[in-house]
Design a protein that fits this description.
Blueprint: E1 2-4, H1 12-24, E2 29-32, H2 35-39, E3 41-46, E4 55-61, E5 68-74, E6 77-85, E7 87-89, E8 93-94, E9 99-113, E10 121-134, E11 140-148, E12 151-158, E13 164-169, E14 172-174, E15 180-185, E16 195-198, E17 205-215, E18 218-225, E19 234-238, E20 244-249, E21 254-256, E22 260-261, E23 264-270, H3 272-277, H4 280-283, E24 299-303, H5 309-313, H6 316-329, E25 333-336, H7 346-355, E26 359-365, H8 372-385, E27 389-393, H9 400-415, E28 419-422, H10 431-434, E29 438-441, H11 454-457, H12 486-495, E30 500-503, H13 507-511, H14 514-522, E31 529-536, E32 540-547, E33 550-557, E34 562-567, E35 576-584, E36 587-595, E37 600-605, E38 610-617, E39 634-640, E40 643-646, E41 651-662, E42 666-674, E43 680-682, E44 686-691, E45 696-704, E46 712-723, E47 734-744, E48 749-751, E49 759-761, E50 768-769, E51 784-786, E52 789-791, E53 794-798, E54 801-806, E55 811-820, E56 829-836, E57 839-843, E58 847-848, E59 854-859, E60 865-872, E61 881-891
Length: 895
């Protein structure tokens, strides 16, 4: 509804026509502006509903200087005080000297369904008024104002068909100075904790969206919607002592080749239930660009980064372990993070996972997908492998250029039917409506930080998570400092909404908490309905979310211990079974109660505690709310030894053990071993018709190496085949493989990695033998790989690093292939030196990640101590992972 207070009145018939059209929602009707209106006036855009808390947006044109201002009332009380509107381009200053040309009002009604979110089926009802202005020199500016039951928004439309370059906006929001505020200092990845302050007392600086304020009895959540490559992102900037927050664009110049509609400056307004339940950011975004969304499947993800960091991503055995866990507990996905690209086993892992009903997601640095050529090469390849989606990381920008990249990658992933999780990213701005393959986004100071305050944990539901899916990565019990209780951590699976819930625990951490495992087997990641039951930023949050006919409850509180009391009025009529998981004296415990909607659920909680619960209708014979879980037996296969050395013509003893850990029995079990062509394997293996939980099957083999075997690594593969309970014998069996890597040495050669170190130092972690430097722990590197060339033997080092070996004059030549390992994602530069008894025998130039392996061949006759050194190439030691591939010494006797 639009009301106005111009200096002179409309004609009666015109006014009635406008009123009738607006009330009846008959569409657009343009009301002509009087001469006085062109000089100044004020207008109110409001919803037609008669609710006492309805919202009204007030637009005022100052008749003296032609400036615009914007204010908002809720139920008659001012929530946002008048603040400037307008935009400046390289051709016109549209913040002053404006005159109204006309305006029209229409009702916006839409229905849509999302693949993710707090509720999937949405109905949009808004009132929109477009104000058309002319500036000095005839430049045109349209202002669209929308008002819904849960907020207001405005945007600028610049109708110049020849294009426009925007320099800045005058847009601002004015709060009462004493308004409580929960603000996050701006950073490009939105990964900062929030601070509780006041609108007027906040420090000067830039603040990131969403920013939450309390104005009187209303909460106001400020953010933006419909940001893409047509524009740039923005943030709010604040000056000391002011209660005004002005929109600051990420770029100094934003270019459009044609007419431009800016993002919506958005304010979600109401009580906290309105803020957390609002879908306004999505409602303002364009409709889905994907017609068939049947391939899009949200779900639970086993994420191994916090259980092993880069080393876990480079280990096939570790990744298979997480696949096995997902398959045993009904989880839909596993995610392999940064580090896998230095391996060659990804297609093997994806096949392994597909056999067990688990889908694989892959981490990528955004720069790997920067250009059209890179996307055309990478995306079809990983899709051919069978990957289901990508975690794309480190965009770290709100610039127009980066948003144009977002447009490109979203189109490309939709074309290849790949799901997306953006990390190191901007905020959701309605992206999950427009591009429903986006399952979640980071843009949060999340659990991977290792020490998130309870105040921040309990503020996120009212701020960051209110505007879109949030990848907080909970459940990392083995990692960092967790400031909440175990039950509160479990509750985050409900309190936080995310289309992908990337659970960060280790397999052992989950298995140590059987009640947590049981709840996570049941909790979905997409909801039909969500309700805030109680809470306040920094104090706590309790949510009920419905999936089908079951309700899931999650509550987390700051402070305590206490008894939480949650009214159950959201339940339907009749009797309900509620199963509560809470903190007990010795870990998580589960309790079952029969209640109805008139009851209050009382749960004792620890300090900084909480609880999770599942509610279902009670009926005769029902003993649990759990639904059946599709399971594959959790098994493990070990092969011993992991590594062995043999001479040509020699033998190696190999053993295999298959264990059914949980959810047995495993049927039709077979253990076999295979070796390279020409090698012989002695031993019959082992078989079992059934192996119950806790049982093992063992086998041993003797493997003979042919005399003419080439030097290097050779694999002996131990294979376990088995079937899950109830599987048809005609179904192909499941397979697990483990490798014993046998190194066959050439005569007269010793590898430096096999010799004892007389001295060692390294710039990051220890020097690694026969693997890249990796992270900060021993044994956490991947294969030694330089520009795609892999080396079985050698040293992984980091500048400034060196190794000394005492060789006592027994060798006459040292050879190696040196360079920067492929495991680093940034640019590193290194200079390699070979030193004999304190004298430099060889030095390379500066080598970078772009260089292929550099050969070193040095005469070491008579040298008693050989030192291999990697030094900084001149740009600092970051990413200086230095490989000494195939570093070997030739015996003087052999020559």
């Amino acid at each position: 509804m639009l009301t106005g207070s111009p200096s002179s009145k409309f004609g009666l018939l015109t006014w009635l026509a406008v009123l009738l059209s607006t009330v009846l929602g008959l569409g657009t009707l343009t009301a002509p502006a009087s001469a006085e209106e062109r000089k100044g006036g004020s207008w109110t855009v409001t919803r037609q509903t008669g609710a006492p808390g309805r919202l009204s947006a007030d637009v005022r044109l100052d008749g003296t200087d032609g400036t615009l201002s914007f204010a908002v009332r809720r139920g008659g009380a001012t929530v946002l005080e008048p603040a400037p509107l307008g935009i400046v381009t390289d051709a016109a200053d549209l913040t002053t000297g404006l005159r109204l040309r006309g305006r029209d009002t229409r009702e916006v009604t839409e229905h849509y369904t999302t693949t993710t979110g707090k509720e999937r089926r949405r109905t949009v009802r808004m009132t929109q008024t477009r104000f058309s202005f002319t500036g000095d020199g005839g430049a045109r500016l349209d202002l669209d104002v929308r008002v819904s039951d849960d907020g207001v928004a405005y945007r600028y439309v610049l109708p110049d068909k020849d294009g426009v370059t925007v320099l800045r906006e005058a847009s601002a929001f004015q709060l009462p100075a004493a308004s409580p505020a929960w603000l996050m200092p701006y950073t490009v990845n939105y990964e900062r904790p929030r601070t509780e302050t006041t609108a007027g007392g906040a420090a000067a600086g830039d603040y990131g969206y969403p920013s939450l304020f309390r104005s009187g009895d209303s909460f106001v959540l400020l953010t933006e919607s419909d940001v893409d490559g047509r524009y740039a992102g923005s943030r709010l900037t604040h000056e000391t002592g002011s209660a005004r927050y002005t929109v600051r664009l990420a770029d100094e110049r934003i270019s459009s080749p044609g007419p431009l509609a800016t993002p919506w400056r958005t304010a979600v307004i109401g009580d906290l239930a309105t803020v957390t339940g609002s879908t306004l950011v999505d409602d303002l975004a364009p409709a889905s660009r994907i017609r068939d969304t049947s391939w899009i499947r949200p779900g639970r993800v086993a994420w191994s980064w916090l259980a092993g960091f880069g080393a876990a991503q480079r280990s096939l055995e570790t990744q298979q372990r997480f696949v096995d866990y997902s398959a045993a507990h009904g989880w839909e996905y596993t995610l392999v993070d940064d580090g896998w690209k230095t391996t060659d086993w990804m297609p093997q892992l994806i096949t392994y996972a597909q056999q067990r009903g688990v889908k694989v997601l892959l981490w990528m640095h955004w720069s790997d997908l920067d250009t059209a050529a890179e996307r055309a090469e990478v995306l079809p390849r990983i899709k051919k492998w069978g990957a289901s989606g990508l975690k794309i990381d480190f965009m770290d920008s709100d610039s127009q250029a980066r948003f144009r990249w977002y447009d490109d990658i979203l189109r490309a992933t939709a074309e290849h039917k790949l799901l997306v999780n953006f990390h190191g990213s901007t905020l959701p701005h309605g992206i999950q409506r427009t591009w429903p393959q986006v399952m979640t986004m980071e843009a949060v100071y999340g659990a991977e930080q290792g020490n998130v305050s309870v105040a921040d944990v309990t503020t996120l539901p009212f701020t960051r998570n209110a505007v879109g899916s949030m990848d907080y990565t909970p459940m990392g019990f083995q990692f960092g400092t967790r400031n909440t209780s175990e039950a509160a951590e479990l509750a985050l699976s409900v309190v936080y909404e995310s289309g992908f819930q990337n659970y960060a625990g280790s397999v052992q951490a989950y298995r140590d908490r059987p009640q947590l495992e049981r709840f996570l087997e049941q909790v979905p990641t997409v909801w039909d309905e969500s309700r805030l039951l109680s809470g306040h930023p920094g104090d706590g949050a309790a949510f009920a979310r419905r999936s089908g006919d079951r309700w899931f409850l999650g509550s987390v509180t700051a402070g305590g211990p206490a008894t939480e009391r949650v009214p159950l009025g959201f339940l339907g009529s009749g009797r309900w079974r509620v199963e509560v998981v809470r903190d007990g004296a010795d870990g998580l415990i589960r309790e079952s109660r029969i209640v109805d909607r008139h009851d209050t659920l009382s749960v004792p909680t620890l300090r900084n505690g909480g609880f999770a619960a599942l509610a279902c209708r009670d009926r005769p014979g029902r003993t649990t709310c759990d639904e059946p879980v599709r399971r594959v037996p959790l098994t493990s296969l070990t092969a011993t030894p992991q590594k062995a050395e043999a001479d040509p013509g020699g033998t190696v003893s190999v053993g295999g053990r298959f264990l059914v850990e949980e959810f047995g029995p495993a049927a039709d079990v077979r253990l076999t071993a295979s070796a390279p062509s020409g090698w012989t394997v002695g031993g019959a293996g082992a078989e079992a018709e059934q192996l119950p939980t806790g049982s093992t099957l063992d086998a041993n083999w003797t493997v003979r190496v042919p005399k003419d075997t080439a030097y290097g690594n050779h694999d002996v593969v131990v294979t376990a085949e088995y079937r899950a309970p109830g599987t048809s014998p005609r179904t192909p069996p499941l397979r697990s493989l483990r490798t014993v890597r046998v190194f066959v040495s050439p005569p007269g050669v010793d590898f430096v990695s096999d010799l004892p170190f007389a001295a060692e130092r390294n710039g990051w972690g220890p020097v690694e033998r026969d693997q890249a430097n990796g992270e900060n722990s021993a044994g956490d590197g991947g294969s030694l790989t330089i520009r795609g060339a892999t080396y079985d033997k050698g040293l992984g080092m980091h500048a400034e690093g060196e190794v000394a070996v005492d060789i006592g004059g027994a060798y006459d030549r040292f050879t190696a292939q040196v360079g920067i390992d492929d495991e680093v994602s940034g640019e590193g530069t290194v200079v390699f030196q070979v030193i004999g008894d304190g004298r430099v025998l060889a030095t390379t130039g500066v080598l970078s990640r772009a260089d292929t392996a550099h050969p070193i061949d040095v005469d070491v006759t008579g040298v008693r101590r050989l030192t291999l050194r990697a030094t900084d190439g001149g740009d600092g030691i970051n990413f200086d992972h230095a490989d000494w591939g195939d570093a070997r010494l030739r015996s003087a006797d052999a020559s």
